[in-house]
Amino acid sequence: MANIAHTYYPQTGRLVILGAGESGVGAAILGKDRGFDVFVSDMGDISNGYKEILQKETIAFESGQHTDQQILNADLVVKSPGIPEKAPLIQQLRAQGTPVISEIEFAAQYTNAKLICITGSNGKSTTTMLTYYMLQKGGINVGLAGNIGKSFAFQVARESFDVYVLEISSFMLDDMYHFRADVAVILNITPDHLDRYDYKLENYINSKFRIIRNQTEQDYFIYCADDQETMNALPRFESKAMLLPLTQEREIVQGAYLDKDNTIKIYIPNREIFTMNIEELSLQGKHNVYNNMASGLIAKVQELRNQTMKESMGSYVNIPHRLEHVAYIGGVNYINDSKATNVNSVWYALESFSTDIVLILGGVDKGNDYDMLRELVKQKVKAIICIGKDTSRIHDAFEEEADVIVNSASMEDAVEIASHLAKKGDTVLLSPACASFDWFKNYEERGDKFKEAVMTL
Fold first, then answer.
1. Total domains in the fold of the chain
2. Does residue 293 carry a pLDDT above 60?
3. Using one digit for the tens of pLDDT, what is the confidence trace for 32-84?
4. Is 126 marked as a binding-site residue?
5. Span 281-300, mean pLDDT?
6. Which of 290-299, 323-332, 336-345 has the highest mean pLDDT?
7. Annotated binding residue at 345?
8. Domain boundary among 315, 346, 378
């Protein structure tokens, strides 16, 4: 059975794709293979790599503009998660009754694979990659998609997997209606991207909980019982799926918990219990215990052997740009956490280190509330170096907590300043709490520039 049980959308006719990034080009290829008349439109410049793919596939496209008459005649529109609902073109399409959906929603119609869907404000990339690694080790024919790697639609079109592990953002969930997750995971919910949700946390929470829509009694819902926002919202959303909580605060009868001996225990009815001491995990830190618990529960659902799970959790190496060790220079540890684009991610990063920290912070502020960082900054951060165009909110937030707050002119400048402020035994941590697009194309470029600057010290 496909993961959209019935066909809710046109299966022929004109398919318009808005946005020609990884997800858009993948959706265009799947649409072409399914016999649609496909047109791709991107308001920005389409990269040469994606242009070449579209030309090779003989798919019509336009770059640097949206031509209304080429778009408003669509039978179905697949839009990039980056395009907000308030965009006038989207409003026009909605007003005339044209379905506007996400690439994930579109592609799910055409696969019978099991879909493991992971969302959360923090930790979703690590949990997704760890789960993928574990399932591969367990011999499962598994694909990786969503916010990571090759487009889901492209893989559905041209590859064949029995299971997909999908990292799903709130922006993707906003355009998903009939999609069904076999396993849905909400790791945590903290204020993020509130500029897209009318600055209302409740709207963002509603978006995250769309991941459990359409689940049946055969499905599983994994969530963190220690996360206040998740637990507050849970009664509002009815789930038919088997509930599998995870917690580090108490013993529970089914799900995952941490016992008093610092041993993770994972139990799903009718499956063998799994145990592993947290000291044996390759990813350390409290937040990574949660990530391992979530991945472990997924592995149990997929009936992996305990030995495979243990080996995987003990050998996994973290993804780039997430608490990534770059170098150890003059007794100073340099850490790239460029993927930390919100305040909560920075909290996790600061919590992971016991050394004094020189923190590189800043970028495009999305309405950040820095209050939750104040105590940790006071305890652990000896200096803050600001990057990005507007640094005033960082100065205002931490002027009483940090002894030193300085601005920098570039990433090279920031790293240079940090190297002078850091003493032997300290950690220089790039963990920006902000989006990157004022100085960089994306968080990957920001992290790469940091790594380059460190290596020239």
1. 3
2. yes
3. 999 999 999 999 999 888 999 999 999 999 999 999 999 999 999 999 988 98
4. yes
5. 92
6. 290-299
7. no
8. 315
Confirm whether residue 336 is marked as ligand binding: no
Domain, as residue range, for 26: 14-101
pLDDT tens for each residue of 254-289: 999 999 999 999 999 999 999 999 989 988 778 889
pLDDT greater than 80 at residue 23: yes
The string of DSSP codes covering 317-352 is -PPTTSSEEEEEETTEEEEE-TT--SHHHHHHHHHT
Q: Are strands 357-361 and 381-386 parallel, antiparallel or unpaired?
A: parallel
Residue 204's contacts (CB-CB under 8 Å, 6 or more residues apart) are: 170, 189, 191, 192, 193, 194, 196, 197
Q: CA–CA separation, 86 vs 29, rounded Å?
A: 27
> What DSSP assignment string belongs to 206-257?
HHHHGGGTT--TT-EEEEETT-HHHHHHGGGS---SEEEEEESSS--SSEEE
Residue from 130, 122, 178 nearest 350 by CA: 122
In this structure, are 85 and 132 located in the same domain? no
357 burial level (CB within 10 Å; 0-12, 13-18, 19+):
buried
Q: Which of 297, 315, 333 is the last residue of a domain?
A: 315
121 is in an annotated binding site: yes
Q: Is the dihedral of CA 250, 218, 308, 286 positive or negative?
A: negative
Q: What is the predicted pLDDT for the residue at 372?
A: 84
At 1, the pLDDT band (50, 70, 90 cuts) reads very low
- Residue 257's beta-bridge partner residues? 247, 265
Is residue 122 part of an annotated ligand binding site? Answer: yes
